[in-house]
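Lab notebook, bench 4. The sequencing result for the construct came back, and we need a structural model before the next group meeting so we can plan mutations. Quick request posted to the team channel:

Model the 3D structure of this chain.
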Amino acid sequence: MPLLSALAAYYAARDVLLIIYFVIGASVLVAMREFEPDSRDTIFIMLIASISLSLLFSSTLSSPNLIGWDVHNEYYIFEQVANTGTWKPGIEFQYNSALSISILPAILTSVSGLNGVQVYKFVFPAIFSLVPVVFYKVYRKFMTPQMSFLAVFLIVSYFSFYQELIELARQEVAELLLALLLLLPLTASVNRSRDGKILIMLLTAGLVISHYSIAYMYLLIVGFSILMSRISKRSLPINSLPVFLLSGVFALTYYIDVASASTALTMVKFLSSISNGLFQDFFATSSRPLVEMQALGYASVAPGVWHVFNRLTQYAVLLSLILGLFVFALKGKKDATERQILPVMATAAMLLGLSASIPFFAAGLNLSRLFHIALLLMSPCIVYGTDKSVHALAYVFGRMRFRRLASFFASRRLLAVLLLMSYFLCSSGWVWAASMDRPTSFVLDWQRMRGSSDPILRVTYFAEYTVTDDVAGAVWVHSYVNGDNVCSDYISQYHVLNSYADLPRSRPYLPANCNYANSYVYLSQLNDVYGIGTGDPGYVLWPVSTIATKLANDNRVYDNGGPAVYSAL
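Done. Here's the predicted structure in token form:
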């Protein structure tokens, strides 16, 4: 039902989409119902799959074109493989090492008959929608159906799941492989058999060639679990030492030899920036992301009751996760599965701790994506944390002789349900769309972003959406212009010209680096209609009027009412 509603919302008004998102958020109330034991897993799995597809397709179907940032780079690499029929491993570009965005989509287009844009907008999100379902199966190894559903609901509630990850096809594939690599070792019949170990090795190889960062994190998880199992009897390794060593050797061989060392070099640069930050910028607030500074109280947050409510909700989720991890770690008489999953949760908590304490750590890995990965690994902790909080409230209310209030909070995990519903409505941007506050969601609030007088919000819209008029202009450039002589602003080069004009991101940016006498100039709708240019990075803005004297009307060779193309003077 939510899936059909989300698909219909693509053609409906903004108010209808607000209602649908509220219904999706309220679907967590299902966890308070009692179902027949034989049907609980089926109902929860169907609901999880429906919610996942609804949220993912509500984002990808909000535009007929590609959405986001990295997806344009991924699409460019796919086109090189699709057009030539070969993959060139020697290209020194880290995305090229991810076969999940080069060879895989080329195979999918050949087999299915879909074009590349359809594969990126439909097939990859459909694959990614399986991730919450697999993690539900992981959590069911040591939790009840109701608890597992609540843990998975936290994963899909975080905005990265349905806004950022739709822009990262390589990570969508990698996270499904990661989920399977966590599920299989928890399945005794698979983990103990030779065929099971071979399957785990094949999936590990698939993860390595799909996404370098997730592969590094998986190796960290396995390595840390092995180390913890040697230190404490409370934990067991998620995988064996031989499998870990073979996986590490394969990853290093692939990244250094096959992938031209580009991904290995990226890791070296990341470690170098962290090292410099520890000794030079440890106390500088600029070395940590703005959202982290806001969480710690060092940066301003917009005033208003809803912003206070949002901040309290975010704090409550984080505190519940931390409390739940301690509750789970100190739990007595853990079974084998719980002892295996404990170091996995501890690794996620360690990554979050490092992102908060070490300069440039969160920025290097992208804090929102890092938090999303952490939720995949430790979201069950929110159930343990809220349960412990409820027991504390029940004790306090009981001592105050408010027994009915105590039993009310203790019934059917009401606190966890209310917290998760509030978290989804705030994280998705629903609260700001419904209250007409400053918009944050390009799905729910794209109209207000595009029409805003604030240039940052307007640029945010054009940074996420590739509008159809810009696509038409890029296709014209691809057909009639030598790509080596095209100048554009940062977003145009990074987005529409990269994917739809098949031009690499290696040309000079407007305004300063363009040789106007010998180059074509591509102005997007944001540039030509709204007069805003973007620099590197994309939110450095400049007025297009500053280059007006270098663009003669007689040289305007393309204009469709949105973007325009000028020939050399």
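Strands lie at 486-487, 520-523, 532-534, 541-543, 556-559, 564-566.
Will bring this to the meeting.
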